[in-house]
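Format is chain and fold; as here:
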Amino acid sequence: MSSYRGRFAPSPTGRLHFGSLTAALGSWLCARAAGGRWIVRMEDLDPPREVPGADGDILHTLSAFGLESDETPVYQSRRVEAHAEAFAQLKAAGHTYPCWCSRSDLAPFKGIHPPRCVASPDAAREPAWRLRVPARDIGFEDAIQGRIRQDLRREVGDFVLLRADGWYAYQLAVVVDDAAQGITEIVRGADLVDSTPRQILLQELLGLSCPRYAHLPLALDRDGSKLSKQERSLAVDGTDPLPALRASLAFLGQAVPPQQTVVDLLSAALDRFDARRIPAQARAPAPFAAMRKELS
């Protein structure tokens, strides 16, 4: 058995759309091609944006597309104690500080938090807690996007670890949970390339191993914007999965087999899978209707 452990980590903020399906399929193909395990984790740390029942709908839709987690899905909201332990470790080492800055406070800095707060402490409200970002470049080799480097202080600034509403921020939670699940390979959308250096810094500060990364091209709408869960024309249908599966394979630069069942299509696609054919650049996917007409 391979030591490869990959994952797909959706947020339950709506139904599965084409961009999310492509991230799930891309990560599944990479894991299966390596003889590894593929795990689903529900990243439910933003209650105001979450849609009741979306988690179950996402899991049901993934199953309809033949994408079954090899382990019981983990919910981040149930791992708050682990996130708190990591935060306490960073705080004890002097890497964090409380911050009352608002968006308007940071507007003159183009949203990038400087090395020190620009707002005064306010006892009437809870602060957020930020990480002190060092003045250094952090780079990594992305299997699809190539070499990525980022000057964290200049391009990102001190970033939030614990939000003012009491929830731990994505950047901290994802690092802690990837380590806890032994994730070795992270295959996800290129919209998260910018987050990766922050996560690598946190891995270093917490003494955690760094996974390998591969960021898939983003699926764009007709106007060149990233697809969202509100893009109804490209929502995926679990009752008719073949057209979207074929469109997703084509979007990932893979051969699109003619098989007529989900199991057979995935098996044939895996046999022909070549990660080197995954494009780096974002683009609009082929319409599902065209895939249905072409291969039905």
